Amino acid sequence: MSASALQQAQGFLDFVNESPTPYHVVSTVKNELKKHGFQELSERSNWAGKIKKNSKYFVTRNASSLIAFAVGGEYQPGNGFAMVGGHTDSPVLRIKPISKQSKEGYHQIGVEPYGGGIWHTWFDRDLSVAGRVFVNYPDTGKCVAKLVKINRPLLRIPTLAIHLTKDRYVKFEFNKETQFKPIAGLVNSSSSSSSSKPVEARDGCCKGEELTEEEFHSVKTTIERHNKELLDLISQELDIEPSQIEDFELVLYDTQPSCLGGMKNEFIFSPRLDNQVTCYSATEALVKSAADGKLAKSSGIQLISLFDHEEIGSLSAQGADSSFLPNVLERLTRLTANPQVDLTSELPSSYFLTTMAKSFMISSDMAHGVNPNYTENYEAYNCPHLNDGPVIKINANQRYVTNSAGIVLLKKIGNLSKVPLQLFVIRNDSPCGSTIGPMISAKLGVRTLDLGNPQLSMHSIRETCGSADIEKLVALFESYFENYSTLEDTISVDGVE
Asked: Quick one: which H or E segment has residue 306?
């Protein structure tokens, strides 16, 4: 592996190790963008007069989705956008709203599966917690969201010993509600509770007694709903008192760091490859392509959109099926104009329609690399390999929205960047996953192609991809951002000049 490929692979390792949740992904991307001159915008304010040519910006929603863009120095209203879309979330276990439980002398944490994970891989792993915490500051009257990531093992979901199973060779199965609870420690001998029932089911709150003003809470306090020791650890991490924690959104993550693997460092062993590979590569490519000298000569807008909630269907205020991207695109197409134009007045909506017709979206999500132990599960002539380059994903039933026009464009981009491309289709007797591509192309009417780096063990707590493929995806995106405006006009789809 070349020195440059190793550097990009190490950059990704650092990225994913810092980003156990969508909130951390967005924070990590924000820091990288700010370091390279991107200015933060807010959806709560008017952007009129704030968007300039040869300038770079980003905006977030819910602190878990982010859109960043660079406006070319030669941009004109109605010109096309070169866009890359991905997602910030991965299958994970989320702590329940009331998580305080104990059984047989163990503290347990109630968790809820998020997305379609390979859940048996979560057993016997060294787990900790991360996410965002809303902290109350009584002196100001404000509640402020703070990121937390406890960097040591706290939890474990233990499997049943093989000696105690009825059939040692039966398929590993378990009940997600009763047998998928992490243990967090031992209950002190002074504790009066070792029951299997959660505390909230035993405290008499539903017996109809009239509560005093001191006893009443519209929702029980965080201290009552969650394990005290866990709250103490979070408070120490944030340097606050436990009573200041108003609420939180915390998930479990594997504390084993992402790392290089293989006899020649040809692999990356890591959690959350799906889809932090895109988050990292798209950010790197946008930063590189928007360097001052290059951006000044660009006639388009280069944009990345990183959405939360893809793993559960994208239907949320900050998902790909939300108004986030359309809202940002409408603002840009109406308010970005010549210096002589008064930017406090909006341009006609026809600019938005013209721009979408000239734009392109690469829906970037990880692809299935061939697993040598299960070759019978792959279409024989469309088996992508690790470190052989990004994969164009195709499905006749539009689970992926790639078509020939998009393939022609990507081939041109690949030739310019010297990045090899692979093709993938699912077997006819297998179901096909999907991406943000279909919903974005339908919502915006924009041409879209599905693409991603190949990986093994998708949706496992520990996945595998090729270490050299990170550099290839960055280079492909960078070339796409830099060359799309020139290439777009060379591919005629509807026969209209």
From this structure: strand 301-307
Does pLDDT of 337 surpass 70? no
Nearest CA among 25, 2, 20 for reference residue 278: 25
Rounded CA-CA distance 82/336 in Å is: 16
Q: Residue with structure tokens 């209203």?
A: 77
| DSSP3 helix / strand / coil % (the chain, rounded to 5) | 30, 25, 45
Question: pTM for the whole thing?
Answer: 0.92
**For residues 57 and 212, which has the higher predicted lDDT (pLDDT)?**
57
CATH class of the domain comprising 92-254: mainly beta
Residues 116 and 289: their CA atoms lie apart, in Å, by 35
pLDDT tens readout for residues 242-295: 999 999 999 999 999 999 999 999 999 999 999 999 999 999 999 999 997 899
The Cβ-side half-sphere exposure at 387, using a 13 Å CA radius, reads 15
How far is the CA of 438 from the CAs of 250, 394, 395, 435, 446, in angstroms? 30, 12, 11, 7, 10
What one-character DSSP code corresponds to residue 312? Answer: G
Q: Which amino acid is located at 366 in the chain?
A: M
Give the largest Cα separation in the chain, rounded. 81
> Of 191-195, 348-352, 438-442, where does the model show the most confidence?
438-442
Distance, CA of 19 to CA of 253 (rounded, Å): 10
How far apart are the C-alpha atoms of 223 and 344, rounded to whole Å? 49
pLDDT 10s digits, 194-243: 444 444 444 444 444 566 655 555 668 888 899 999 999 999 999 999 99
Residue pointed to by tokens 């008499």? 204
Q: Is 189 exposed, middle or buried (0-12, 13-18, 19+ CB in 10 A)?
A: exposed
CB neighbours (10 Å) of residue 464? 20
Between CA 478 and CA 41, with CA 480 as vertex, the angle to 5 degrees is 70
Q: Is the Cβ–Cβ distance between 196 and 108 less than 8 Å?
A: no
Name the residue among 393, 475, 483 with its Cα closest to residue 436: 393
Quick one: fold of 3-90+271-490?
Aminopeptidase (3.40.630)
| Residues in CB range of 132: below 8 A, 6 or more apart | 21, 23, 63, 145, 146, 147, 148, 248, 249, 250
Q: For the chain, which residues make up each domain, given as ranges?
A: 3-90+271-490, 92-254
**Residue 185 in tokens:** 């420690």
Which is higher by pLDDT, 474 or 213? Answer: 474
Segment (H or E) for 134: strand 127-137
Q: What is the DSSP letter of 105?
A: T
Give, rounded to a whole angstrom, the gap between the first and last alpha carbons of the chain: 45
Neighbour count for residue 17 (Cβ, 10 Å): 17
Amino acid identity of 297? K
